Amino acid sequence: MKIGFDISQTGKDKAGCGYFADSLIQSLAASGQDNEYVLYPHFGAGFWDPTGRKTTRNFDLNNVSRIVIGNNFHESQAFWKYFPSDGEDMLGNPDIVHANNFFCPLALQEAKLVYTLYDLAFLLYPEFTSEQNRWTCYEGVFNASCYADFIVSISHYSRKNFMEIFPHYPADRIRVAYPASRFSSMSGSEQGSAFKELIPDKFWLAVGTLEPRKNIRRLLTAYAAFISGNPHGIPLVLAGGKGWLEDDLEEFINILGISGCVKMLGYVSDDELIWLYRNCFAFIYPSVFEGFGLPVVEALSLGAAVITSNTTSLPEIAGNAACYVNSLEEKAIAAAMWKLMNDNDYRMKLKSLSKTQSLKFSWDRCASEVLDIYREVVKRPKLNS
Fold this sequence. Notes:
The chain is of the alpha/beta class. It folds into two domains: 2-180 and 362-379, Glycogen Phosphorylase B (Rossmann fold), CATH 3.40.50.2000; 191-358, Glycogen Phosphorylase B (Rossmann fold). It has helices at residues 16-30, 52-55, 73-81, 87-90, 121-124, 131-147, 156-165, 216-228, 249-256, 270-279, 294-301, 314-318, 330-342, 344-358, 363-379, and strands at residues 2-6, 36-40, 64-66, 96-99, 112-117, 150-153, 174-176, 204-207, 236-239, 262-266, 282-285, 306-309, 323-325. The strands form two sheets. The protein has a seven-stranded parallel β-sheet with strand order 3-2-1-4-5-6-7, sandwiched between helices. Strand 1, helix 1 and strand 2 (36-40) form a beta-alpha-beta unit. The chain is elongated, with a radius of gyration of 21 Å. The model has no long low-confidence stretch (mean pLDDT 91).
């Protein structure tokens, strides 16, 4: 098979979609030489990485090539939005095109379209994102419900949401393939140890793009309550790039009076992130909505004790290896922090369960399941044939 694969978000400062595409294509490319992969650094009408030609995933393998669509955003957007009659020739005539950044191509005549479904937070919690992002995501998922020949869902929770909102889509054409941690218990170096100069031996850790869905403000409010009862308590470290609708987050921290206890690191390298996961007192992820929750699996894979939300996909992912909280209640988040602080046996139990739970998720397994989908979809008629 010849698979055209969207790598548009695998470049600099990648987040969830980019990590999924990046890890999956690495496992697919390593799975053997039976298939040919054509990588598209520029994909879709709504996303453009000006450094993508240089920074997106690349391979020195005989069965992997790259095709760059457009020299600038205008050219790339025009191609994908007004797909030309020879568009599939320009894409290398793949048997399958796999879309990974919410955009859904509409005019593929011969190639089968596989679409990655992440989540539908933009529909269920529209207040958590910008108008532009909400429309881009909705347009992509809606079009997938009409044109995708097969959908890869990253969790059963996301699959359930999709089928409830788009019941017209054939249920036998959507299947779950779980992502996994890109870190193993043996990966990484001591590069992150430079943080020792900035961070005490004990610290709470929160990881994720700074956006409302991640519930950072409730976490900060809970942490302020925790610190007020424990003035010598350990700091809270936030690692993640800026998203949207959180431009005044530092001002919010100042108003809470905890600026001296909260350390905002911004976007960190993989080695630095590994060090943070390994050395944190506990990892806190009180997200309001997740299609999967990749940072939770990353934390579990590196042996962290995890506090996370009891909602959406997170119990599906963390199993019995997490302390669950109602993420809408600051008191519940603070209580969980107190529980781990005062009950070290419980914290160590969570740490002992974490790696076992993370082993349920594997990029090799994900790649194998996606390959099965590829084999199936090339044999089936197109959705609208």
